Amino acid sequence: MAEPGRVAKVGVVGAGTMGFGIAIVAARGGFETLVVDNDRDRLGRIAADAQSFFQKSVRIGKMSEKAATESLSRLRSTTDLADLADCGLVIEAVFENIGVKSDVLAALGKVCDPRTILASNTSTLSITQLGAASGRGDRFVGLHFCLPAQVMKLVEVTPGLRTSNETLAAAWQFCEQAGQVPIKT
């Protein structure tokens, strides 16, 4: 775990379109990145899709071959939420349903280090309510990436009523380090 307020390892829960894009952003931004999904086939496609994305980025001059190789080497996947225990930031990007998200966040609140910041990629649900479900409202924030996350730079950073200033600052710093443009909503 990195020093307080600094993130070194990022977890992404959900390997769908948004989760994949967020994982690409994190890996490209220099973060060790772990994607969790219960669908092994979807996780298998993540590696191939990421390689294809990075190869295309090299072809069109958006990144060097070395940067692409390094980014890809930082990206791993698993089916076990417990593997996220030592992440500094975990971003939930599962189905847009308060019950599903709350269940995932409650599980993350139990398995992750108490210093881990939890975030949701939601654009419509209450960050305060999701933070409460996680059991750590002060270490919870909304990080809504625009679609497709690996191309669009904007990230809406939304604090809940209990989100601490330290959590908000760390989430903001993560966005900037990952090459994104955060705005507070």
Notable traits:
185 residues; alpha/beta; 8-stranded mixed sheet
Radius of gyration (CA) equals 15 Å
Shape: globular
Give the overall average pLDDT.
96
Strand tally is 8
Residue stretches low in confidence (pLDDT < 50, at least 5 long) are none
Please give the alpha-carbon distance between the first and last residues: 28 Å
Helix tally equals: 6
What summary fits the major beta sheet?
Answer: 8 strands, mixed
Share of helix among residues?
A: 40-55%
Q: Which range does the strand content fall in? A: 15-25%
Strand order of the largest sheet: 3-2-1-4-5-6-7-8
SSE sequence, one letter per element: EHEHHEEHEHEEHE
Structural class estimated from helices and strands = alpha/beta
Could you provide a short overview of the structure?
The chain has 185 residues and is an alpha/beta fold. It is built from six helices and eight strands; from the N terminus they run E-H-E-H-H-E-E-H-E-H-E-E-H-E.
